[in-house]
Amino acid sequence: MKKLIFTLLVFTITMTVNAQTIFGKWENRDEETGKVDSVIEVYEKSGKAFAKIVEITNPERKDAVCDKCEGDKKNKPILGMDILSGLQKDGSEWSGGEILDPKKGKIYDCFIELKGKNKLKVRGFLGVALFGRTVYWHRKS
Q1: Span of the secretion signal (predicted)?
Q2: Judging by DSSP bridges, how do beta strands 93-101 and 36-45 pair with one another?
Q3: CB contact set of 135 (below 8 Å; sequence gap of 6+)
């Protein structure tokens, strides 16, 4: 009986900790339709947060390339592409990195912040956070 209680306790703690992290898979939703257009995986490497596109829901866009990107991402497949890089934890948010908008080929300064266990605020901006755009990613269930 003690083993069962201990196992349930460990499972509950693990689920609670995992639900309160930025790491994992997130759904990006089209701003006009509200439908999921891609799934993004946020992962940690060397203490920093990164993210890549792991799924594109529109069958016609699965083979899309970043034709508007510059540099080493020019004409590379969007599926599998890192779009978020180098964010470091700073209090309740992760900041100091960049985010790529593959549809526009533009790179923006970025910070992200967990808003509840299933919602991630993603803010991209140029220079000052006041001048930018915020989107919300929703944890993939």
Answers
A1: 1-19
A2: unpaired
A3: 28, 31, 122, 124
pLDDT along the chain (141 residues), means of 10: 45 47 96 92 97 96 95 96 96 95 95 96 88 94 85
Q: List the one residue out of 28, 34, 37 whose CA is nearest residue 124.
A: 28
Cα 56 to Cα 43, 60, 81, 98, 117: the distances in Å are: 18, 9, 11, 21, 23
The class (CATH top level) of 2-139 is: mainly beta
Question: Do residues 14 and 6 touch, judged by C-beta distance below 8 A?
Answer: no
Q: What is the 3-state secondary structure (H, E, C) of 20-53?
A: CCCCEEEEEECCCCCCEEEEEEEEEECCEEEEEE
How many Å apart are CA 60 and CA 62, to the nearest integer? Answer: 6
Q: Tens digits of per-residue pLDDT, 66-76?
A: 999 999 999 99
Please calculate the CA angle 28-31-37 and round it to the nearest 5 degrees.
35
